[in-house]
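To assess whether the prediction recovers the assembly geometry, we first specified each molecular entity separately, as shown.
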Amino acid sequence: MPRPISATISVPALAHNLKTVTAQLARPAIPVARVCPRVWAVIKARGYGHGIGPAVRAFSRADGLAMLDLEEAVQCRELGWAGPILLLEGFFEPRDLAVLDEYRLTTTLHNTEQLDMLSAARLSRPIDAFIKLDTGMSRLGFAPDRFRDAYARAMGFVDRKLLASAGKMTHFARADDDAQTTQQQLDVFRQATQGLPGSVSVCNSAATLTPGLWAGLNDTDGQWVRPGICLYGASPFAARSAAELGLQPAMTLASRLISVRTVAAGSGVGYGHIFTAPKTTRVGIVACGYADGYPRHAVTGTPVTVGGVRTRLVGRVSMDMLAVDLDPVPHAEVGAPVVLWGEGGPSVDEVATAAGTIGYELMCAVAPRVPKTILEERQA
Ligand SMILES: Cc1ncc(COP(=O)(O)O)c(C=O)c1O
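The predicted structure of the complete assembly is given in tokenized form:
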């Protein structure tokens, strides 16, 4: 018998989340927004841990898929995805360009080295590109005072039939928590791209879900938003839950109790005895630990559901097990179902907060040893 832990991925929940985001984009808050943006569904890191196959099936109505691993891009094509695919970091070495050419991949161009590699390439047909501007993230992209030169080189590549189109893109550092910084980045973007034709792509989930933010950005050929985390049913905002945003959890990490014990008042539980029972306490041991991807830094009090009842983690998370307080669930026995996060349990964001991290990290970190079940349809 395998250990009783599993991660269930819901294709309908993923599809629901895309629909929720798309519906919001169709209701612009300010009238300057003329055309509804197109959506790159971001599926990097194997669809934020949900798997490329489920993501491709769930996001079949997206306008494009965005990722950064060439192998994942090829896999999308092999799974039948015929629409645009954006490589968020572009290509890394000259031989990658043959893959972009063969599989019709759209590239980000964010540095001079990439422009040089593209200039020397022989392609069977022009590829699409987005030229990335660094408006303040200080990660990838041309500095504002270099952007026009990079864009001019890209236009030269259009003339040489290496590129079919050149869009403009940037990435926000604080769209989730600081409107002022985002506004400054938008101002830099507007100024640096003034008068340059092409489509525009600026918004991650937080920006996509901030009404009207993407409007009026020198987007002669329309906009492409790039939501990631919200499609997986987690919130990009610390102060607004995924449920409030109308999102559904797409990943459920579940297990069972494999041991139940009564711990005397004053006795410690688990490594380091960082939890000591204040009174006689029933404690359940769950088959889930940090080697499964559950965060070791989750603190006593982190929410968890046992037999449908919300309770809390106690003590330090071990490699393969963790302990929960069974006082709110007095009848729970060995075999009782446990939801660590997802449907029927706490949200991944709640667990992440209790562990000092973000939902992104938890979903991406579920270990390969955890068996995955893919729900293709809603359960009755
Ligand atoms: C360039 C780029 N665009 C879009 C996204 C999606 O961001 P989020 O998952 O916050 O929506 C990311 C994620 O890190 C990214 O790096």
